[in-house]
Design goal:
Layout: E1 14-18, H1 23-34, E2 38-43, H2 46-59, E3 63-68, H3 77-88, E4 93-96, H4 104-109, H5 111-139, E5 142-147, H6 160-180, E6 185-192, H7 212-225, E7 229-232, H8 236-245, H9 248-254
Parallel strand pairs: 1-2, 1-4, 2-3, 4-5, 5-6, 6-7
Helix pairs in contact: 1-2, 1-7, 5-6
Length: 256
């Protein structure tokens, strides 16, 4: 059961979702659509983007606009952000939800694969956040939310390249949160655990896997409540606290 939010919920009606065709990103967008929000969706695959857009219109979205973008083409970020602002007239919230789970063994064997994984999962997000931060700071309000991962809480031998990207994002978001707090802008770090999505399709299942709809709803409520950091599902917070408490000399031997 999700923990109740203690802060008074606010209204967020003009929403940008980058990575809108991802399982989690689309579920958060669905929650906004049910509330009648207006959405600007960004993703790499035009066909899947069109399907998600139609679904959101059926659910009750006030408006749905789209743009196709490969996030690694960072020279296009500013133009897409401007398109979103012009289409909706304003932005109350931006959710950054794109990412890939790289093959750790291929990264270990290839500098190119490692840098590519870091570019998709970290550098491209930092580039987007720099533009979004400047917009919302000038606007004097709003919400920026970014999906990272519990993998960023500690480096594990099986996915430390992916974990490195998420750890870097966690630190970047912590500093960004402090910077934007005086402007009334909330910055939410979302740390999912195992979620049943296409990205994790090749991994063995365990009892900790969560349904993406439940995860999306938890993120939506956290955004409305102005939270700073949320683990989804909530039980990952104590789990990761215990993992972080393991001494290095032991963790390096047992880290899967």
């Amino acid at each position: 059961m999700a923990r109740p939010m203690k802060r008074r919920e606010r209204t967020l009606t003009d929403v940008l979702v980058v990575g809108a065709t991802s399982a989690i990103g689309s579920e958060v967008a669905r929650s906004f659509a049910r509330s009648g929000a207006r959405l600007f969706l960004v993703a790499r695959n035009a066909e899947r983007l069109a399907a998600v857009s139609e679904d959101l219109r059926v659910l009750g979205a006030g408006r749905v606009e789209t743009a196709v973008l490969d996030v690694t083409h960072m020279d296009r970020h500013a133009a897409v952000l401007q398109s979103a602002i012009e289409a909706l007239g304003d932005l109350d919230v931006a959710l950054v939800a794109h990412g890939v789970l790289p093959d750790q063994s291929r990264c270990e064997a290839s500098v190119e694969e490692t840098l590519r994984a870091l570019e998709v999962n970290c550098t491209s997000t930092v580039a987007l956040l720099t533009l979004l931060a400047n917009y919302f700071e000038q606007r004097r309000g709003g919400c920026i939310a970014v999906i990272t991962s519990v993998a960023g809480d500690r480096g594990r031998r099986s996915n430390y390249v992916y974990g490195t990207a998420k750890a870097a994002l966690n630190t970047f978001l912590e500093g960004l949160r402090a910077r934007l707090q005086p402007a009334g802008v909330s910055v939410l770090t979302v740390k999912p655990g195992f979620v049943d999505t296409p990205m994790t399709a090749g991994l063995p299942r365990n009892p900790f896997y969560a349904d993406p709809r439940r995860v999306g709803e938890d993120i939506y409520r956290a955004m409305l409540a102005g939270r700073d950091v949320v683990y989804v599902p909530w039980f990952w917070r104590p789990i990761m606290a215990a993992v972080r408490a393991i001494p290095v000399r032991i963790f390096k031997r047992i880290s899967p």
